Amino acid sequence: MxxxxxxxxxxxxxxxxxxxxxxxxxxxxxxxxxxxTPCFAKTPEDVGNFVWDxxxxxxxxxxxxxxxxxxxxxxxxxxxxxxxxxxxxxxxxREQIFVIGAPCKGMMDRHKIASLFETEIRSVAENDGKLIVxxxxxxxxxxxxxxxQKNCAVCAHRNPVIHDELAADPVEDQKDVDRYADVREIxxxxxxxxxxxxxxxxxxxxxxxxxxxxxxxxYCPTCFVDESQPQWVGKSTDPIDTKTFHFxxxxxxxxxxxxxxxxxxxxxxxxxxxxxxxxxxxxxxDAFGWEPGLDLNQRxxxxxxxxDDPEDFIK
Amino acid sequence: MKVIKIDKKDWADSLGKLSxxxxxxxxxxxxxxxxxxELGNDEQPDFNFQNTRVSAKSMVLPQSETLFTYSLDxxxxxxxxxREPEKNYSPRAVLGIRPCDAxxxxxxxxxxxxxxYKDPYWVRAYEASTFVGLACDDPCSTCFCxxxxxxxxxxxxxxxxxxxxxxxxxxxxxxxxxxxxxxAAGWGVETNADVELMKRTAExxxxxxxxxxxxxxxxxxxxxxxPFWEEAAFACINCGTCTYSCPxxxxxxxxDENHGNAGVRMRNWDSCMYPLFTLHxxxxxxxxxxxxxxxxxxxxxxxxxxxxxxxxxxCVGCGRCIRLCPVNIDIxxxxxxxxxxxxxxxxxxxx
Lengths: 315, 351
Ligand code: SF4
Ligand code: SF4
Ligand code: SF4
Ligand code: SF4
Fold this sequence. Notes:
The complex is a heterodimer.
Chain A: H1 5-17, E1 23-29, E2 36-41, E3 71-75, H2 77-88, E4 97-101, H3 110-115, E5 121-127, E6 130-135, E7 138-143, H4 150-153, E8 165-166, H5 181-187, H6 191-201, H7 210-214, H8 239-252, H9 262-266, H10 274-288
Helix pairs in contact in A: 8-10
Chain B: E1 3-7, H1 11-18, E2 23-30, E3 33-38, E4 64-71, E5 92-97, H2 99-112, H3 120-128, E6 129-134, E7 160-164, E8 168-173, H4 176-185, H5 196-204, H6 220-224, H7 229-233, H8 241-245, E9 252-259, E10 262-269, H9 290-309, H10 320-324, H11 331-339
Parallel strand pairs in B: 2-5, 5-6, 6-7
Antiparallel strand pairs in B: 1-8, 2-3, 4-10, 7-8, 9-10
The complex binds iron/sulfur cluster (4 copies).
């Protein structure tokens, strides 16, 4: 994927030069290994800062919400699906954006990589499916495929579903991935065990809301946790309030979440809150045959109604 | 100053002795990282860490703290009156706090404990605490403490400084509180070992630095109107990670919560990165966009605090906000932009 950058720069420069867009949103190199940071280019010269590699996990759709300019945006499979959701939910107009598609082979799980070393990682280079990682206690060459973010390891849509131009040829999608093995494991737990599982899952949460804010779906001007009249949920570190936040947020993402993994990636405490959104994603497939972000012309299942709905209560 | 030798094989015993006169707190491993917790009976602090994930500030300023309780039940004689709950301000010892986190309390103290105003909860908890520091000999690449008024062996804010010397600790007694704790633990073996060389070695391992010398001379309004904020703030998602993990961020919000007729008035950490932080009752928000909020955080730390107290920046260089920011906004870069800002060189402004 490192090879995409020349094409990304070429397209971005052209778009800015020709005035097709006012800005292009992409990534620039961060100050820490495995951390690229979202940035914009407003002039062809700014494009020089762009990078592309396996550490571009942040979902850039989050940076489009309610913007008024004409924008070029680099989109992986998951970003493109969030962009589709944004368009169907009127957060941005299709004609306002130029999607530079980046077929994706998966982004790296930096926490997992860090856990393989005793000391801090000093640098990470990438080459042909391999990562060359240097830490205080030596250098290792690792297979990228073994170190994907959890969501990327089971990603079923690596190619951008909408794009105006591609930065590379489409990649082969992963076949036979079992997306929901972990969800099924929890589904089969007896209630008490499930309870303990979720208690433990969220025990370290500091309610910083990085998960919510990294999520392209969480664009409400005032989130329900921030409301005070009425106050839906307490604001302290009470474990029940904390779980209420997580459960309700997950429901707000039901039928919309593309499992881009931004929430989990952003969490400073390493919490896998995706277990909630994934369960609802699975339920949407089971109940409605629905996968979000694949079609600009369909509404997500929870904001639409079908005449042939099998349930009586709604008729 | 006295240096004492503590054999590691006696460590557990001495903690046993300390657990009588003190409530003990220390770093404990939780899943993938360490954080400060109250230690259970016979629980040992785990010193095998570079720094705790979030800072030790909750030892004095808990993320959620009950200030009052009240009853809305008119049958109760003191209904609708605030009652101060019983709290435990008996002596506590915070074991293994890093020098940066200890120094941070002194930065906060300038605001929470002044001749004019005292935050009674903070002051009582602070005064009840004895801080037993653990010097850093293996700093993170993101630590820039030595250029932020602190350092891996820094002593300000500590009562005792422990230095790991293999099979034993060397303990530098720094205050009367430190002396009392040493006595309670039964540590008495004085040595003339010198930690100066270890200190210099540790300091030389700090690989990262900021420059702050120009900040004071700049006009706050020039920095406020500097053209770099839009770009600097672009990636920020306005979470509270940087402020919640920071040892020097002190902002809180006060909330009442009722369950039936019983209520508590509590304070919870708050963050200038949240839109709600400055939302007025009228609906107006003076810091409406994330550009305003990011600017506020850095202006407070690197300019307003410095101007107000003339005692350095409101940052001890622990590097947590750099390590934990999900989009890699790096205070070292922003500090450089501010420190080197030349208002004459630019014409554009942010709103
Ligand atoms: S979820 Fe899929 S498209 Fe998105 S980063 Fe991971 S592999 Fe790429
Ligand atoms: S990002 Fe992590 S710590 Fe912050 S609110 Fe979400 S789950 Fe909690
Ligand atoms: S600077 Fe980083 S950690 Fe702080 S609010 Fe912005 S995104 Fe969150
Ligand atoms: S601003 Fe950042 S580096 Fe400075 S004390 Fe706070 S968390 Fe540490």
